[in-house]
């Protein structure tokens, strides 16, 4: 599903450049539940942005669903994102003036699905995350956990191949963290590839495979107990 | 453009950010309001000028003579100049292709009498073309024709007020009128937009007048309508040429303005035209300046809006929005705000102009200030273009926002 070969990425800082990813090799198969761990500055967010087609790598190859990602223009990237990827962010990133339902339906708008149909689909997904009765509330009327569940529903609504979650529990307390992780587990159980970035050990342990990053290189890549059990 | 979902997105965005939208629209409303008022008022001025000349045809010229004020070729100052048929025919033959209408005019003052009613009136002896030069409107019967002139008929066309004075409500057409002792047939009754004085006169054939009153070939003045295909400058040059040629023919000093002069509407028209042209130029300058300021205002506010919505655009992009769809959305929002705001300004301006109406005519020479449909259509096009321009730069910026940077922004 995701294959990365000898990937390098640096950011220019003034005249110098900061070498963030220093030759990453990573292969994630369909249906995996992977967490990327690392302290801040280890390059994990950069990796996720590149995987999520939000940023472009400098060197190496990146295959998404078998397709070599090369010479991406914004339009092509947008279409691929819409088709293959669902995002869950630490700060939820819901649009504040849209209701929960409209937020969930937004990716379907960019997919070109008509309003009636997309609101129906969105409602199904809100139901799936247990927020059907909150459908017409604005984000600021929801709790943190509820917002993240809306964001997850939004990530799932286009039936993506991969769900990318950037510190999905970073802004949540431990109980809501568990409920969000349970939700991600359920999604993975349905066969979707889930790719989580976190610096919390407890969160990582609930996934099936942990990849540890340090200073732009992978220092370990092993299955968790749950992963071994499968 | 006609994507209902796109419009829904835009209305939602405008509706959720009313203050911002109103603010950005305000500058454009104001610009258009100002432009409409200025343009309407200048139109009002123009209307006043045009109606001041409504009495006569726009292309009319009059050759007038008085006493000489300069000696010439041994002839003394103070000599009375007299135009004759010969001069009339000279003009007619020499400038055939430059003349649309031509008429002689002899001024008389006669007592007109019908039964017991009698009064003194100015009577003009003229040619048939005079009707067009003076913009005489025939209400009943007909005007003088060539046959009347050839036969030196004793026929008369009387003004509306002459008829009212002498006949009251009774019909006058076909009746016989006593003109200075001779009996004339009333063949027509006319009105004239030039005012009451122009309707308290009567017209008779020039040949009849020459025959009966003096038996000579004198005429008081020559009225001409220059060929309307001539440009104003050519018409002015034509007037000057007639002046020169006739002075030469009548042995008048070439610079003796008093002895023989041509009063040329083309000169007045050119003056008014230049004056109005300058006014319109000022209006367009001020108006477009204000509009440009308005566009920059909208553009500024849109740039600020884009900054405020950076995160939203980042989210939209992460969810699959293409740059084109972001540009489209921002530009469309800008066009919508500009057009609505502009129309509010335009409607308000038109309303104020209609309130002014003719109230300022007496004091300020502003008559029926208004803007024409053509201007309204042009304004619409300008507004939509303005919206495009105002929206495009910020939209381009919005589209260039990198999703990661946008998502980091708080």
Automatic annotation (TrEMBL), chain A:
GO terms for cellular component: membrane protein complex. It holds the Pfam family ABC_tran. CDD domains: ABC_MJ0796_LolCDE_FtsE. PROSITE patterns: ABC_TRANSPORTER_1, ABC_TRANSPORTER_2. This is Macrolide ABC transporter ATP-binding protein. The keyword Cell division does not apply. It comes from the Bacteria. InterPro entries: AAA+_ATPase, ABC_transporter-like_ATP-bd, ABC_transporter-like_CS, MacB-like_ATP-bd, P-loop_NTPase. GO terms for molecular function: ATP binding; ATP hydrolysis activity; transmembrane transporter activity. Keywords: ATP-binding, Nucleotide-binding, Translocase, Transport. Residues 2-229 form the ABC transporter domain. Belongs to the ABC transporter superfamily. Macrolide exporter (TC 3.A.1.122) family. SMART domains: AAA. The keyword Membrane does not apply. It comes from Polaribacter glomeratus.
Automatic annotation (TrEMBL), chain B:
It is found in: Cell membrane. Residues 287-403 form the ABC3 transporter permease C-terminal domain. It is a multi-pass membrane protein. Residues 26-236 form the MacB-like periplasmic core domain. GO terms for molecular function: ATP binding; transmembrane transporter activity. The keyword Cell membrane applies. GO terms for cellular component: plasma membrane. Keywords: ATP-binding, Cell membrane, Membrane, Nucleotide-binding, Transmembrane, Transmembrane helix. The chain crosses the membrane at residues 21-42, 278-306, 326-353, 373-393. This is ABC transporter ATP-binding protein. Belongs to the ABC-4 integral membrane protein family. Its main location: membrane. It holds the Pfam family FtsX.
């Amino acid at each position: 599903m995701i294959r990365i070969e000898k990937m390098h990425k640096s950011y220019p800082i003034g005249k110098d450049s900061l070498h963030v990813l220093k030759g990453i090799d990573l292969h994630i198969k369909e249906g995996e539940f992977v967490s990327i761990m690392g302290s801040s500055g280890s390059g994990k967010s950069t990796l996720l942005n590149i995987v999520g087609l939000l940023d472009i790598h400098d060197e190496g190859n990146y295959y998404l669903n078998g397709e070599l990602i090369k010479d991406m223009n914004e339009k092509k990237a947008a279409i691929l994102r819409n088709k293959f990827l669902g995002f869950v962010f630490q700060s939820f990133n819901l649009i504040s003036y849209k209701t929960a339902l409209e937020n969930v339906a937004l990716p379907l708008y960019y997919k070109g699905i008509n309003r009636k149909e997309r609101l129906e689909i969105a409602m199904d997904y809100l139901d799936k995350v247990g927020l059907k009765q909150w459908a017409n509330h604005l984000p600021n009327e929801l709790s943190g956990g509820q917002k993240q569940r809306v964001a997850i529903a939004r990530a799932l609504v286009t039936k993506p191949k991969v769900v990318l979650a950037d510190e999905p529990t970073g802004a949540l307390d431990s109980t809501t963290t568990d409920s969000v992780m349970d939700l991600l587990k359920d999604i993975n159980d349905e066969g979707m590839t889930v790719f989580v970035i976190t610096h919390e050990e407890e969160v990582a342990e609930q996934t099936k495979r942990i990849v540890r990053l340090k200073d732009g290189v992978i220092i370990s890549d092993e299955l968790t107990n749950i992963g071994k059990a499968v | 453009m006609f994507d209902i979902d796109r419009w829904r997105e835009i209305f939602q965005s405008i509706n959720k950010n009313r203050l911002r939208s109103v603010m950005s629209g305000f500058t454009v409303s104001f610009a258009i309001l100002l432009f409409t008022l200025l343009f309407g008022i200048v139109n009002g001025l123009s209307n006043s000028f045009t109606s001041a000349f409504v009495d006569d045809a726009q292309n009319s010229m009059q050759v007038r003579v008085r006493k000489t004020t300069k000696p010439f070729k041994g002839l003394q100052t103070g000599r009375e100049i007299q135009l004759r048929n010969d001069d009339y025919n000279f003009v007619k033959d020499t400038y055939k292709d430059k003349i649309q209408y031509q008429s002689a005019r002899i001024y008389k003052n006669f007592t007109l009498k019908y039964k017991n009613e009698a009064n003194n009136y100015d009577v003009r002896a003229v040619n048939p073309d005079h009707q067009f030069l003076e913009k005489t409107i025939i209400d009943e019967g007909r005007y003088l024709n060539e046959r009347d002139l050839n036969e030196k008929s004793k026929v008369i066309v009387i003004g509306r007020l002459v008829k009212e004075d002498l006949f009251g409500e009774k019909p006058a057409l076909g009746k016989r009128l006593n003109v200075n002792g001779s009996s004339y047939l009333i063949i027509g009754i006319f009105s004239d937009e030039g005012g009451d004085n122009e309707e308290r006169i009567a017209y008779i054939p020039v040949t009849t007048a020459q025959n009966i009153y003096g038996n000579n070939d004198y005429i008081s003045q020559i009225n001409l309508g220059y060929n309307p295909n001539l440009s104003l400058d050519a018409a002015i040059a034509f007037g000057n040429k007639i002046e020169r040629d006739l002075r030469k023919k009548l042995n008048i000093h070439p610079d003796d303005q008093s002895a023989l002069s041509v009063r040329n509407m083309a000169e007045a028209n050119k003056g008014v035209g230049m004056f109005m042209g300058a006014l319109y130029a000022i209006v367009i300058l001020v108006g477009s300046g204000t509009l440009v300021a308005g566009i920059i205002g909208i553009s500024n506010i849109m740039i600020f809006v884009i900054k405020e919505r950076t995160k939203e655009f980042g989210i939209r992009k992460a969810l699959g929005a293409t740059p084109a769809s972001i540009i489209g959305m921002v530009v469309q929002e800008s066009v919508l705000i500009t057009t609505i705001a502009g129309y509010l300004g335009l409607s308000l301006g038109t309303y104020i102009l209609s309130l002014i109406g003719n109230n300022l005519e007496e004091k300020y020479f502003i008559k029926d200030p208004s803007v024409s449909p053509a201007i309204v259509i042009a304004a619409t096009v300008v507004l939509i273009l303005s919206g495009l321009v105002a929206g495009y730069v910020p939209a381009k910026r919005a589209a260039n926002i990198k999703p990661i940077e946008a998502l980091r922004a708080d």
